[in-house]
Amino acid sequence: MDKKTMYKLTYGLFVLTAQSEGRDSGCIINTAGQVTSEPNRISIAVNKANFTHDLIKASKKFNVSILSEEAKFETFRHFGFQSGRTVDKFANYADCKRSANGLYYITAGTNGYISATVEQEIDLGTHTLFIAAVDDMEVLSGAPSATYAYYQSDIKPKPEKPAQKGKTQWRCTVCGYVYEGEELPADFVCPLCKHPASDFEKVQ
pLDDT tens digit string along 134-149? Predict the structure, then answer.
């Protein structure tokens, strides 16, 4: 079975934001989509380990900022490679505004945002699927939406050090970090993006 087949699906990329009890946070997701048009509903799947997941569970509200091809890697690093449990991601972060529901949306490297209220939750084990009614939405730019494939080819940094002859490298498919060694430990965690060994590929 070739796990890279999943990369052929047309994932988008989004910054998901929420707030509860005065705490704002956001994370990167690639699972957001319209499920019905009348009434207008969207779905998002969020990892339970994300602090943003807990804020949505508590408040029942969220914003989805749609990342465009103009997005910089710094946006992915800022919202995807650190935890809102220990870092205030909006402290001194200027590229955002509050929408009518009081939540932040991202203004740089995005082409629109959607505000929604949760109507239904489905437990998926590691994730929760939220079905939500659309309350508001706005187009921010005409730039094309960034797909996961575009992120891999054009946004994610290329490895800083080339493979050396006789050396085996393992490259993180999320952030590009390179580990050198004949074998990658099964419990290895990427020091940059915190993804597990299963998200690394062997580089000959």
Answer: 999 999 999 999 998 8
Q: What is the pLDDT of residues 1-41, one digit of tens each?
A: 887 787 677 889 999 999 999 999 999 999 999 999 999 99
The pTM assigned to this predicted structure is 0.84
Secondary structure (H, E, C), the chain: CCHHHHHHCCCECEEEEEEECCEEEEEEECCEEEEEECCEEEEEEEECCCHHHHHHHHHCEEEEEEEECCCCHHHHHHHHCCCCCCCCCCCCCCCEEECCCCCEEECCCEEEEEEEEEEEEEECCCEEEEEEEEEEEEECCCCCECEHHHHHHHHCCCCCCCCCCCCCEEEECCCCCEEECCCCCCCCECCCCCCEHHHEEEEC
Query: Are the beta carbons of 113 and 65 closer than 8 angstroms?
Result: yes
The sheet carrying 40-47 orders its strands as: 23-29, 14-20, 61-67, 110-123, 127-139, 40-47, 32-37
- On whether the CB atoms of residues 67 and 14 are closer than 8 A, the answer is yes
